[in-house]
Write a structure and sequence with these properties.
- Helix 4 crosses helix 6 (231-252).
- The protein contains 13 helices and 18 strands.
- The protein starts with 15 loop residues before the first strand and ends in a 20-residue tail after the last helix.
- It folds into two domains: 6-96, Nucleic acid-binding proteins (OB fold (Dihydrolipoamide Acetyltransferase, E2P), Beta Barrel); 117-417, Bira Bifunctional Protein, Domain 2 (BirA Bifunctional Protein, domain 2).
- It is of the alpha+beta class.
- The chain binds one RNA strand through strand 1, strand 2, strand 3, helix 2 and strand 11.
RNA sequence: UCCUCGAUAGCUCAACGGUAGAGCAACCGGCUGUUAACCGGUAGGUUGUAGGUUCGAAUCCUACUCGGGGAGCCA
């Protein structure tokens, strides 16, 4: 008998098939049982009538929540079913009978759910988010490969800070100190000089004691870098990538988005080109609205939210003051006080999802900036080499996948956008 | 690091200075179409830890532990 995934049941209406999965729930009266099976691709209700098969009916009393089963049954259309199909159960075997399952169908608190993350991910909502994450990652790769970008993975163990700002996780590299990467960017610049257009996609680590719905200690970042790309090329690439992500998730996950109660209209409203506002103009706007902030100060979360809420699409904040951005960002020739970089803020207050810039290509200027930031020149010696040997203008950006997925899914917290979140006070399980 | 909130049954919560309760889960029974099914019953507790105030503390005070939300920083 053919083994079919729940999500494909509609293609087999009328036939008898085998299903393999876990019992999501069971309801029973004296004469009829409803067993909801989940197999990770969806859920389906299986019906068992006592009069038709008394032996099987009794045996099914043993099907506790999350017991694993292989069952056979006939698929039929059923107007009363939310998915339109239902299974008439013919037989089943229990692979592993589950003990009383901690995560019931009732409400639970964040602490308990986090402590049981390994089981929490089995719930329909969490599964939907993780499926969307998978598609978002796939769409990133599809998009960049389609634009002739080459995947060039950057190292996770690094000898020193990439940007010298954030706190790093220190590890012991045999007798030496080493650090977990907080960005693959500097290595990306090297691979871009070798391969022209490249990207890396992997975990990145921040040891800052951040403790908000937008922060994880370990998160995944898509970082692209392109030789000969200037500021404008960079922004265009970013907005087209993010637009592609939105469209792809809408196309492939309407059911998951519905399950998450996502307001789909807000995603459908995203359109190209994305709005742009310079730091200076954004600042004026914020001051006119009563924010206490001066030129040269970075925007905080409340400011970012205030700006992003004015637009339906993600918005670029461009031309930040050089003093609040990383040392490698190219100054604007028209005004060297500001840099040719931009942050992309997601709508609905989800915060910064991309940070990017054109990079300094002049070796002398780069050396000067390294000194100004009090960074050790010798650890950047190889990075300076990139400017010694055939320097070119180039640009890149980093996209935080969890924040992006959280926005796409409309969920409250980035911890639900990754299978096993690492937060400030929790790394179990 | 700072601000803020919290910890009571397996889970979600109530009891607010005077005998620790409810719903769900578990277990037993009932029910022919349920969608977090429903109905009846049984069992389940050193109220996060340590001290203090009091005739009496889940409740008030102090410290600690663990966690939630936020600030800063960032994706």
């Amino acid at each position: 008998m053919e083994w079919v995934l729940v999500k494909n049941l509609k293609d087999h209406v009328g036939s008898e098939v085998e299903l393999r999965g876990w019992v999501y729930n069971q309801r029973a009266s004296g004469k009829i049982r409803f067993i909801i099976l989940r197999d990770g691709t969806g859920t389906v209700q299986c019906v068992l009538v006592k009069a038709e098969n008394p032996g099987l009916f009794e045996k099914a009393a043993d099907l506790t929540q999350e017991s694993s089963v292989i069952l056979t049954g006939s698929i039929r259309e059923e107007p009363r079913s939310p998915s339109g199909v239902e299974i008439t159960l013919n037989s089943f075997i229990i692979i592993g009978r589950a003990d009383p399952y901690p995560i019931t169908l009732k409400e639970h608190g964040v602490d308990f759910l986090s402590e049981n993350r390994h089981l929490w991910i089995r719930t329909p909502r969490q599964s939907a988010i993780l499926r969307i994450r998978s598609t978002a990652e796939q769409a990133c790769r599809e998009f960049l490969h389609g634009r002739d970008f080459v995947l060039a993975d950057s190292p996770i163990i690094t000898p020193a800070a990439c940007e010298g700002t954030s706190t790093l996780f220190e590890i012991s590299y045999h007798e030496e100190k080493a650090y977990l990467s907080q960005s693959g960017q500097l290595y990306n610049e090297a691979t871009a000089m070798a391969l022209n257009r490249i990207f890396c996609f992997g975990p990145t680590f921040r040891a800052e004691k951040s403790k908000t719905r937008r922060h994880l200690m370990e998160f995944w970042m898509l970082e692209a870098e392109a030789a000969f790309f200037e500021f404008e090329d960079n922004l265009k690439l970013q907005e087209e990538l993010v637009f592609h992500l939105v469209r792809t998730v809408l196309d492939r996950h309407s059911q998951d988005l519905r399950l998450l109660n996502r307001d789909i209209e807000k995603l459908e409203a995203v359109s190209l080109p994305f709005p742009r506002v310079s730091y200076t103009d954004a600042l004026k706007l914020l001051i006119s609205e009563g924010h206490q902030i001066q030129w040269g100060e970075d925007f905080g979360a409340p400011q970012e939210t205030a700006i992003s809420e004015k637009y339906q699409s993600p918005v670029f904040i461009t031309h930040f003051p050089a003093g609040i951005k990383a040392f490698y960002m190219e100054p604007d020739p028209a005004n060297p006080e500001v840099i040719l970089g931009a942050d992309m803020l997601a709508p609905e207050g989800y915060g910064e999802i991309i940070g990017g810039s054109q990079r300094i290509s002049d070796p002398d200027l780069l050396r000067k900036k390294i000194a100004e930031h009090n960074l050790p020149v010798d650890t950047f010696s190889w990075y300076l080499d990139l400017r010694r040997y055939g320097t070119v203008p180039h640009s890149g950006f980093g996209l935080g996948i969890e924040r992006t997925v959280a926005w796409l899914c409309g969920i409250e917290h980035v911890r639900e956008a990754i299978p096993f979140p690492r937060t400030l006070y929790r790394m179990y399980p």
